[in-house]
């Protein structure tokens, strides 16, 4: 038995690829278009860790997606949580829970999927601008 | 960067451990109780694949969890999809989308988290009782 992926639905594939790809740092492993079903599937994963994936389902006919409390978040370990959060901010992503402790941060995808970031190994030394950065909304 | 886990919230830890553990076949990797925060975290994973986990969050003070469309499902590859579905049924789990094709099935957790099961490698030969088993609900 093996974990394959967590699937999330996205309203805008371009925005979602910018978020999960350029901003978060995942890489596209596979992309399949299904014209008959009118949907596209994109599989992303951490570089070099292609077996554990996030699957984006993009339905070509517009739908609005809201969240529910039974799902919590998807978590990734990152090499440098400050570098990851800086890159996310550079792409316009709000850091909902900044890494004030050098250890943990939360952001949300364009469709409000909560993403947890955890510093690999020991926490980094607390540093600005993170120490002074307030929480924004929920995550 | 590395995928760590997908977190879901559960209203009943015992029922959820029966579902994700005995019925689905994941094993408990770690369990932590937080009396001050009044919650318990349980991490499960496929046997021998402990790095990619499902995190169950059990809040001791009752909450009701509903689903949202932005989250889709969590997917696992299984060695024998018929054996997995039989075990799930033996534990009272409804097979929402039976593996009529010997390839794919869907079930839902006690908190309506959708779980996709995919046969590893080639699909199995179509067989009863699956061929004649109708879909139940959505997934």
Structural class of chain A: alpha/beta
CATH topology of the domain at 5-59 in chain A: 2,3-Dihydroxybiphenyl 1,2-Dioxygenase, domain 1
Distance between the termini of chain A: 30 Å
Gross CATH architecture of the domain at 5-59 in chain A: Roll
CATH class of the domain at 5-59 in chain A: Alpha Beta
The largest pleated sheet of chain A is described as: 4 strands, mixed
Oligomer category: homodimer
Strand content of chain A: 35-45%
Described by the principal axes of the CA atoms, the overall outline of chain A is: globular
**CATH superfamily name of the domain at 5-59 in chain A?**
2,3-Dihydroxybiphenyl 1,2-Dioxygenase, domain 1
* Unreliable segments of 5+ consecutive residues of chain A: none
How many helical stretches of chain A?
Answer: 2
Mean pLDDT of chain A: 98
Strand order of the largest sheet of chain A: 1-4-3-2
- How many beta strands in the DSSP annotation of chain A? 8
In N-to-C order, the SSE pattern of chain A is EHEEEEHEEE
Helix content class of chain A: 10-25%
Radius of gyration of chain A: 15 Å
Topology at a glance:
The structure is a homodimer of 139-residue chains.
Chain A: E1 2-9, H1 13-23, E2 27-34, E3 39-45, E4 53-59, E5 71-78, H2 81-90, E6 95-97, E7 104-108, E8 114-119
Parallel strand pairs in A: 1-4, 5-8
Antiparallel strand pairs in A: 2-3, 3-4, 6-7, 7-8
